[in-house]
Amino acid sequence: MNIAERRPACATSILPGILCGAGAGALWGLVFLAPELIRAFSPLEMTIGRYLAFGAISCVLIAPRWQGLAAKLGRREWLGLVWLALAGNTLYYLLLSAAVLTGGIALTSLVIGFLPVAVTIIGSRDGDAVPLGKLVPSLLLGAAGAICIGWQAVLPTHDRDASSWFGLLCAIGALASWTAYAVGNSRWLARLGTVSAHEWNLLTGVVTGAQSLVLVPIALLLASSGHDGAAWAKFAGVSVGVAVLASIIGNALWNRMSRLLPLTLVGQMILFETLFALLYGFLWEQRLPTLLEAMAFVLVVASVASCIAAHRRPASAAQ
User: Fold this and answer.
1) Distances from the Cα of 82 to the Cα of 14, 152, 240, angstroms
2) What is the pLDDT of residue 3?
3) pLDDT of residue 319
């Protein structure tokens, strides 16, 4: 895949980019809480509900500009949207919901917090990237945080069983899926000059909604028990709320950030999702973090702070 040249980061773009990343993280953190709110439903049903709502809202918002947008897109762009929708939305949320239900919010959010290390390593190959050698401290801190996360997941306790292993595997799968999305989406935005970040997000929503429709017959076949009207009303409310806050507004902020920051820094912004997801999770579970969770949190924060510092120094020197 040919990678379009990305605009070098400068001091004036780093701060707005970080603010957009923080806003996206605050909204995306709600995604980790949603499965707990509608635990009676399966991960597949949660995925379909969220992305049917996302697709429907995207269709409404994109309708006035559809004719002009469709003329700018070819077969290559549509195929790109299909795999981005799968990796960043459909498959990712299916795995994430399963991870939250079996491993818990804290475990899942901390595993996803390892995303900066994965994206930074991949992004270090881009032409405008900070040399990988300067990012070694950040990567080492992130790896140490990941070790704490893994140890916390498999550590035998009175309330931990084999489901934690399954939750950890699902969280790792979600991490791999969203890493592919973060890298691919950032590079697509870099090469698309005639489509805005908001329009690209809405197009992704339309394709994701279509993928959700395909999953509906499967969900009907696998459904084992019925739900009353109150449960379905709650399910619909959570699905629409997550679609609007996380998929529409959160994704728009993330896409804007992706055009302001280099890829090696884009991945670091997922820290904000981890921070807010942990906050929401601890509030929901009404508890304080364990020692290993606290250590992982501190190490992940230090990893991202180190990476941001490595990017600010070259930007200041260039200015």
Assistant:
1) 30, 35, 22
2) 31
3) 47
